[in-house]
Amino acid sequence: MENPSHVHWLERTISRRIGRGGRFYGFFGPDRKPLGLYCLLIEDHPSHEGHAEVLDLGVVEDHRRKGYGKRLLQDAESRAMDAGVCCLYVATYAGDSAAIAFYLYCGLTPVATLPGLNGPNHKGQIFMQKELGRESLDAADEDAAVEC
């Protein structure tokens, strides 16, 4: 990355994710180079089932459209179910039709939109949810992502 302000923003974002309790997981190629990663936040609660949120999910550009994104999301679902939470949430930019299509393809449903969340000219965030149950995973547990 050549843009120092972007690198600084990314460092702050990762620090905030970890500070909230987020854990990073990823898939790596045989050469140990990253293929993709996600950050999962489990919000458990003593009086109800709680929920999980995928705070970030990304696949290295050269490895997109090869199933890694779906496998990462399935890994997040599996970890969330293992934690005993009832649903998984994702928030994404409301103007990112490719991301929205991906999450719809993976079985998430839009539940809310916050227009103008990041300014008056911003399309806002769309929040998507998936109720979790062992049947929600449509593929057998393959290789689990590695915690980063």
Give a brief outline of the structure.
With 148 residues, this protein is of the alpha+beta class.
Fold and architecture overview:
It is a single chain. This protein is of the alpha+beta class and 148 residues long. The protein has one domain: Aminopeptidase, CATH 3.40.630. The chain is 27% helix and 32% strand. It contains three helices and seven strands; from the N terminus they run αβββαβαβββ. The protein has a seven-stranded mixed sheet with strand order 5-6-4-3-2-1-7, covered by helices on one side. Strand 1 and strand 2 (34-43) form a beta hairpin. The longest helix has 16 residues, at 4-19. The chain is globular. The two termini are 20 Å apart. The mean pLDDT is 87.
Into how many domains do the coordinates divide? 1
**What form results from the Cα inertia axes?**
globular
Cα-to-Cα separation, first versus last residue: 20 Å
Q: Assign the CATH architecture.
A: 3-Layer(aba) Sandwich
Per CATH, the superfamily is Gcn5-related N-acetyltransferase (GNAT)
What share of residues are in beta strands?
25-35%
Q: What would the CATH topology be?
A: Aminopeptidase
Q: Please report the total strand number as a whole number.
A: 7
Individual helix count: 3
